[in-house]
Predict the 3D structure of the following.
Amino acid sequence: MSMHQHYTGLIERYRARLPISESARVISLGEGNTPLIELQNIPKLIGKDVTIYVKYEGLNPTGSFKDRGMTMAVTKAVEDGSHAIICASTGNTSAAAAAYAVRAGIKAFVLIPEGKIALGKLAQTLMYGAQIIQINGNFDRGMALVKEIVDHAPVTIVNSINPFRIEGQKTAAFEIIDALGDAPDYHCLPVGNAGNITAYWQGYKEYSSTIDALPQVTAKRPVMCGYQAAGAAPFIAGKMIDNPETVATAIRIGHPQSWDFAWNAQRESNGWFDSLTDEEILAAQKLLSGHEGIFCEPASAASLAGALRDIGTGKIPEGSKIVCTLTGNGLKDPDTAIEQCKNTHPVTIAATLDAVKKAILDTL
Ligand code: AN7
């Protein structure tokens, strides 16, 4: 075998487990194959005997897990002869749709809520050259419009109601089993539309049910723990909510599209949904960056915030192996990061050796 195996994306890696035809032109940017990083400092800090891994999806080509679903959705759209895709988005889906569309040579239309998209996501989507349709309404309104517009214009929806999105995203569970040799005990992730929790659960079930192909894998499946922002927590309310609000704009969603699938994942895995305040989410984001060197966006930190709370109360017992998905890169939302560090903003000093020496010695 060559020493220089070239990774060409998750469709090639998991082709046998994906609904993809031999002849399809694969639209890929080398997505997937993201690191599963064991936290070294935070477990000691909280004084608990747990093993926590983070699946760092922020290292995908456009900086979020959406690329996993988008490589499949756009490959399928192109195969079906579509010339344009459309999505509603809180930001990451629009960036991914825009990138894969331009790669494929088709058009992308993205509906985004005005003023509620993190800066990095807007910058990417502009640079990839998508048609941005900014609406005077939130994500849920945009999603409703996208579902209607397909009867009036020749566009393919690439939100996670597109089943190929879920197919692509399930590969994250495959990668975790491949890395650990088995599923973890608990899998924690942020929940917005609930496409991702649906995809992971499908992935865990599919991989653990084919133990012929992978004799080392047992039938173990994780408990699925879904975390929402308190101001945008329909799964905790038990019903859709109309005016979701949270600093974690990625999950500012009140009408999740994968409602039934997500409840199914919760029931089948004996898992749960819970909510975190914006303060708890931001504290977890800072804890992770400041103690492990891993920078995720606010929505992603809901997974760790939830896990740490549930480890603290013993709901997740000591001895457990836990995976938290970090859905998006911290660089996506520089405004929130800088705002969070406003009390540690650097002071400017004279450009002299003395002043720099003093600045260092005062701090050591
Ligand atoms: C960083 O981009 O819905 O529960 O339009 O960007 O599968 O919806 C983003 C969702 C978590 C929630 N973390 O995942 C969009 C969008 C990040 C996200 C979620 C999103 P789902």
Summary: The chain has two domains: 10-63+165-340, 66-162. Residues 10-63+165-340 form a domain with the Rossmann fold fold (CATH 3.40.50.1100). Residues 64, 89-93, 160, 190-196, 250-251, 297, 299-300, 327-328 surround AN7 (CB under 6 Å).
